[in-house]
Amino acid sequence: MEKRAQFPVSWLPYALVAPQLAITIVFFIWPAAQAMWQSLLVQNAFGTNTEFVWFENFKVLFADPIYLESFKVTALFSALVAVLALGIGLVLAAACDHVLRGARAYQTLIIWPYAVAPAIAAVLWAFMFNPTVGILAYGLKSLGYDWNHMLNSGQAMALVVIASVWKQVSYNFLFFLAGLQSIPKSMIEAAAIDGAGPVKRFLTIAFPLLSPTSFFLLVVNLVYAFFDTFGVIDATTQGGPMTSTTTLVYKVYQDGFIGLDLGGSAAQSVILMTIVIALTVVQFRYIERKVQY
Amino acid sequence: MKMKKLCLALAAACAFGASSAQAATDIQFWYANTGAIADEINSIVNRFNASQSAYKVVAVYKGDYSTTMTAAIAAYRSGKAPDIVQMFEVGTATMIASGKAIKPVYEVMAQAHEKFDPKSYLPAVASYYSDTHGRLMAMPFNSSTAVFFYNKDMFKKAGLDPNKPPKTWDEVEQDALKLKGAGISCPFTTAWQSWVQLENMSAWHNVLFATKQNGFGGMDAKLVFNNEVLVRHIAKLSSWVKSGLFVYAGRTNQPDAKFTGGDCAMYTGSSSVYGLAQGTAKFAFGVSELPYYPDVKGAPYNTIIGGASLWVMGGKKPIEYKGVAKFFTFLSSPEIQAEWSQKTGYVPITKAAYELSKKEGFYEKNPGTDVAIKQLLLRNPTVNTKGIRLGNFPQIRTIIDEELEAVWAQKKGPKQALDDAVTRGNAELVKFERANKAGAR
Prior knowledge:
The structure holds two protein chains of two kinds. Chain A is an all-alpha fold.
């Protein structure tokens, strides 16, 4: 039997996908093309002076040690955010799946941070870690640990990671919990009857069955760490101290919107776009194969 | 990209909303201040609108300085620029280099036959916004300078004379040690470290910040702030960080709260913080001149300004320019200027406004408010002290912030950090020159 849908008139399928296509073109293809074009130009802020320079902007970028450094910062930051957010989300979901009483309350509370805007979440954490008035910084100080993320690079990184992870854990938790709850109870019970403890049951049954969810979340979390954490960084460290929390996307903003170097900033966003496309391709080609649906 | 689209959409919406038919010609005015300062702007604008019926100035808040600048650029690129836009001082070179995107203020005033004397402005203010021929490119508006604040209660607690603030950096150090000894955890902090500790300290000691008269002489300037005076100063501050005399609290105005909140005993920052301190500080405080190094010949000279000016955008109708000129004349009257400075804490930018405030007894009633203007008027500005005009200045400040943070974190020596800042900053200057000379006509 023919699996493909048959349409009575030839234009109908095109008409049906047209709205989606229009959205994609207007909100993705067009701006992306503009960014690519801009990346080949050297232009002053108001655009009253323009020169086409081929790939000069890219050459300048790759000769800049600060830019190369921001790759390392981004890799470290994204890895930390993705691993921690996924790990904590999974642990919380597994724990919540086991709770008998008050599960709803726990779920609601854990989901809450997702409703907080990234900038607000960041300000919240920055306030708690504020070296002078922050309650957490005060607590750390009384333990003999001096906290000042204005000067200490490691602490600044920790702060932006904590704020970013805190927000993302809710999202991961939600998906993991849904994934866990869709695992047939009979399988878990059968394993329990065979004498498998909760940890063993989780590792051998639940975790492998969660792989489609985990894969999806990995992609989402990496994209989140790459792009959506801009607000967190801008509201807390502004890329500092030094350049220790200047990620790729933050540098795009810094150079483009503060520095008004549109060519250089566009070149960076083209590079960023390439990286994300490459990452997504790799994930779908190599990791997805290991996923059991 | 999305953000840019949003800016464009907003700009378009505002321009459209305002252009609906009205008898009076609308003058779009975008500003970037908040709070009491914004209230004062609106009050002045309302009075101008009430004083005549031919023009109506529409004041619109556009976000902070950077956002306002980006919004103006996006609006210009889509043909929806406002008539007047408030621009922070570090954007001056970008505006001047933008060619037909702006219309110089001296031209606007001359074509509208409005009386306009650039000499009525304080030299340190006018020179900051003038071209090499001494013609005002922008309308000076809100100007402040770097001054020294101190907590009198803490001075008493440490056994220091609350009416004898330190004059030199060595005295600051001695006082800081005493304050530290009295159990004060933050003897000293500074806001706007690049502006106060490098830019203003250069002018204060009459040393060059960048070649080509600090960039006034052309776009091919090179940074030279890695000189002996500044390296020594940064080294001193760095040693204070180590010994706990200087607590670093952020790149821009975050440290303001450390002083007004009563954490830090001494603080250098913008003179416009006076109003904030008066409103929030639960202690007696004093204002005095920025400390200096007495062994530098001739020091102190004068400090330089910060703040913002008003730029007139290009490509507007002659009648709109006429309205802009009328508004500027209204704005620069001694009464308005004196009121503006008294209510906001900015310095009076015309000599007449200063005299008027003096005559009204404002400075006697509010001791310390005249420190800023006295500093600006201390000497006639030299080529080293009339201001700084550099392309990509916002990025250069970020670079300086990054390098100074490396010094405070004891990861780099002061000389090394300033050398690196100069090298990195010079690359920005080359970039700016390239972008503004590309296809030069």
